[in-house]
């Protein structure tokens, strides 16, 4: 189930039976990150946020990056999204070097970044406007998405009238409205209460199972990572690097009750043990 990254520490031996399968799922490689390093300039000199990252994301794969604060998760996402230049290495999406944000990309951040003076429907359509497309052509899809995320009737209301969870649903609809091939999500549910987070995990799984978009998801939560992912990358910090990788071979659709089952608990336990074993988080 798990394996150490080539240059990282070796993780504990595999304990779950299904690892006759290849460690990396088969399929077309959509995103290829090779030898990626990223440093920022700061008042106190350069900060190495990422070093020697090698990573592939396959077509229709749901990949989650899990790691402690400051290990470079957001930096990795921003580099893949073309929002930050890399210091070394390369990133290819569908074989093309990323030099600026690709059009075929939807992004959701922890803060929803909705514009309070625009209606929810108009907020969803912003990404279409940015792409220079006609909002009217996407209005039906925007309405369908809002409906799918339980926001029918709120199209002409404003973000300030919504709860945090509802706002984040609008932000997800905005990322999906032009039907991008890739979905990048940077801790989208990090600011939400536990129940709303559960609901949104289910809704995200539902839409991912329907559309099978290639997804990169960032979280600090081990159960959330296991619930949503095909594969989980665990990162370590100083400098940010890949420390371990897990293939999550649990049937879908997954239910919230599945989190109480033995296979789910074993995945969570093994990931936590790896995180503790790597010294990323101390156990007590
Ligand atoms: N614009 C910047 N200028 C200087 N240093 C930065 C900048 N952005 C990030 N860093 C540094 O790079 C490192 C990685 O930051 P990053 O935000 O990618 O981590 P993270 O894993 O996403 O953290 P968190 O989980 O807290 O959001 C940190 O040491 C951070 O201080």
Automatic annotation (TrEMBL):
ABC transporter domain boundaries: 31-262
GO MF annotations, alphabetized: ATP binding; ATP hydrolysis activity
PROSITE patterns per record: ABC_TRANSPORTER_1 (PS00211), ABC_TRANSPORTER_2 (PS50893)
Domain of life: Bacteria
Gene3D superfamilies: P-loop containing nucleotide triphosphate hydrolases (3.40.50.300)
Signal peptide: none
Keywords: ATP-binding, Nucleotide-binding, Transport
Region feature (Disordered): 1-23
Family: Belongs to the ABC transporter superfamily.
UniProt-recorded name of the protein: NitT/TauT family transport system ATP-binding protein
Organism: Stella humosa
Upper taxonomic lineage: Bacteria, Pseudomonadati, Pseudomonadota, Alphaproteobacteria, Rhodospirillales
């Amino acid at each position: 189930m798990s394996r150490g990254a080539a240059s990282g520490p070796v993780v504990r031996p595999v304990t779950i039976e299904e690892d006759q399968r290849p460690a990396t799922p088969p399929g077309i490689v959509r995103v290829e990150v090779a030898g990626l390093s990223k440093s920022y300039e700061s008042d106190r000199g350069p900060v190495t946020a990422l070093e020697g990252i090698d990573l592939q994301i396959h077509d229709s794969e749901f990949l989650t990056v899990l790691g402690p604060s400051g290990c470079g998760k957001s930096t990795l996402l921003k580099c893949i999204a073309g929002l930050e230049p890399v210091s070394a290495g390369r990133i290819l999406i569908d074989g093309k070097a990323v030099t600026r944000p690709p059009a075929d990309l939807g992004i959701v951040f922890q803060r929803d970044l909705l514009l309070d003076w625009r209606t929810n429907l108009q907020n969803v359509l912003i990404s279409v406007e940015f792409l220079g497309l006609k909002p009217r052509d996407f209005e039906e899809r925007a309405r369908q998405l809002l409906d799918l995320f339980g926001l029918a009737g709120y199209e002409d209301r404003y973000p300030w009238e919504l709860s945090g969870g509802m706002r984040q649903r609008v932000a997800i609809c905005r990322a999906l409205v032009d039907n991008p091939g890739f979905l990048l999500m940077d801790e989208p549910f990090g600011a939400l209460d536990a129940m709303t987070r559960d609901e949104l995990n289910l809704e995200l799984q539902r839409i991912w199972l329907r559309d099978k978009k290639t997804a990169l998801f960032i979280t600090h939560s081990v159960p959330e990572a296991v619930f949503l992912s095909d594969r989980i990358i665990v990162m370590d910090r100083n400098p940010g690097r890949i420390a371990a990788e897990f293939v999550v071979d649990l049937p879908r659709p997954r239910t919230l009750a599945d989190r109480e089952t033995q296979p789910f608990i074993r995945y969570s336990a093994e990931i936590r043990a790896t995180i503790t074993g790597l010294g990323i988080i101390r156990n007590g």
